[in-house]
Structure formats: structure tokens, C-alpha cells
Amino acid sequence: MSEIITQIKEEIISAIDKDQLVLPTLPEVALQVREAASDEDIDIKKLSDVITNDAALSARIIKVANSPLLRASREIEDLKMAVGRLGIDYTANLATGLAMEQMFQATSDIIDEKLRDVWSRSTEVAGISHVLTRHYTKLKPDQATLAGLVHKIGVLPVLTYAEDNRKLLKDISLLDQLIDAAHPEIGKKILEKWEFPEVLKLVPEEHLHFDRVVDNVDYADVVMVANLQSYIGSGHPLTQMDWTPISAFTRLGLSPEVNTHEVEDLSEDMEAAMALLQ
Q1: Taking the domain 3-22+105-275, which CATH number applies?
Q2: How far apart (Å, rounded) are the C-alpha atoms in residues 187 and 47?
Q3: Long-range residue pairs from 238-243, CB within 8 A, at least 24 positions apart, any chain
Q4: What is the pTM of this model?
């Protein structure tokens, strides 16, 4: 890491620690849904009542419940039926992920392009994570989807900093290096602020630790493999690595040589999973 990148990264972390650079907050509807879902007495009707205040979110959750991916036996016609089909936890995680798209807005064209790229990458990784989890693990697909959506959430404060320090916008290469260097640590800080589960808080940092060794497959493993898979065919530096030593593949029971987009049993589900987030 170059000296200037290290210096700017330390400035951003210091600004966050001193509350001089405010970390992003979840959209109000996501906060309300997560708070409601944490109530031990919550039921389908109560959660539906919270979500129904956001018509667009309600429609998207009904769409998800009717997705071929979930193979509903009959068409879901209203939000209450959708929440009943998905369950409380799945609905809360899905609502959080869908609502997060509101956060990826910008005032300048350069930042807007970066945010669109991050959201597009995040939705692709989230879709792959969902399918990998369903087919290869006993983890929760909804948690894996959310893990994929937040794995680069730390980019947001970096771009906020760049907007306030516009010299960075004149050197896109430097900005990209800064994003790569800073977003994992900042992402963890954001998820801590949001009080996400421990299994998700470690994802922004751990999904890039290719030499990590843990006892059992976890969401960081899933996102790591999904992220690598998302770059296949792109010429990205990660595709030039030797994936064979990466033990996350072993924990998933997936060969590093496999392109999940080309596996017949997975490709259709992959497309359906990504469509859920569009």
C-alpha cells in the first residue's frame, strides 16, 4: 500500500472515530422492520403492518415470495401472505437488503457511477451467495444474501470523503486504490453501528482474507467464494490468482475449478436470485 493511500485511509478512520465523518444509517423502513422482527411477540400481521407503509418495498417482497427460486405452491397475492411464506427473519433480512438500495445515491456523476458499480457488484455477489448457501451449506440463504449486499458497504464513507476532498475525484486510480484499502475496516465499523449479528460483522474484512482457516463454513466463506465467482471472465486481478489453496472452497464442498454460472443445477437459480434484487 502506497504511503499516500495509507495516510488518507488513516485520516478517514480517524475522522470516523472522532465523529467528524458520519457513518451511514439504515433507511428508516429497514430500522423499523429490524426492530419489529427483534420483538419476541412479533407475528406476521404486525410485521406486515410495519412494511405496508412502504408500498414499493411491499411490492418487491411479494415479488420475491412469488419467485421461481422459492417455488411457492400457489401465487402470493398480498403482503401478509408473502411474510407468512417467507417467515419473520427472512422477511426482515430481505427488507433490509432491498431498502439499502436507497443509500446508493450521489450528487456528482463520478460518485454516482462508483455507487452504481458497487451496488451492481453487491447484488451479484448476494445472488450467488444465496444460491451457494442453499445448495452447499446449512446456513440461512437470507443471511447470505444480506452478507453479499453489505460486503462492500464500507465504500460509502470513502466516497463521502472523496466528495469533500475533490482532488480524489480527479485521480480515479488513486480513488480505486483507496476504496480497496479502506472499505473492509470501515465496513466492519458500519455493521457494528447497525448492530448486525456477529456472523455478518466480520464479512467485510474476512471475505478478503483468502488464507483464513475456520472450523466450519460461514458467511464470510460464502461471500468470499461468491465474490471470486462474480469476477470470472472479467480479467480482474482476482481471476489471476491461484484459487486452489483457498480453503473456503473446501468448506463449501465446491471445487475452485467450477464456474457456478455454468452448472446446470445452479445457473437458473442464480439468475432468479439476482432478479430478486433488481
Answers
A1: 1.10.3210.10
A2: 28
A3: 241/210
A4: 0.90
